[in-house]
UniProtKB/TrEMBL annotation:
Pfam families: Ribosomal_L30. It comes from the Bacteria. This is Large ribosomal subunit protein uL30. The keyword Oxidoreductase does not apply. It comes from Bifidobacterium vansinderenii. Gene3D superfamilies: Ribosomal protein L30, ferredoxin-like fold domain. Keywords: Ribonucleoprotein, Ribosomal protein. InterPro entries: Ribo_uL30_ferredoxin-like_sf, Ribosomal_uL30_bac-type, Ribosomal_uL30_ferredoxin-like. GO terms for biological process: translation. Residues 4-54 form the Large ribosomal subunit protein uL30-like ferredoxin-like fold domain. Belongs to the universal ribosomal protein uL30 family.
């Protein structure tokens, strides 16, 4: 299965608790931090909720 590289590009100031919880569940804590996650519908849904805060790339 493919992997996704998710990078946090916006901070948590002014965001809802749900958006903060989604980012932290993905493992994102600081601006500029990146994580590698599998490309599953669960992670895609979490990314969709915070798409304005992250960038997503295909990872090898």
């Amino acid at each position: 299965m493919a992997n996704l590289k998710i990078t946090l590009v916006r901070g948590f100031a002014g965001k809802t608790e749900v958006q903060k919880a989604n980012a932290q569940s993905l493992g994102l804590r600081k601006i500029g931090q990146s994580v590698i996650r599998e490309d599953t519908p669960v992670y895609r849904g979490m990314i969709d909720k915070i798409r304005h805060m992250v960038t997503v790339e295909e990872a090898d």
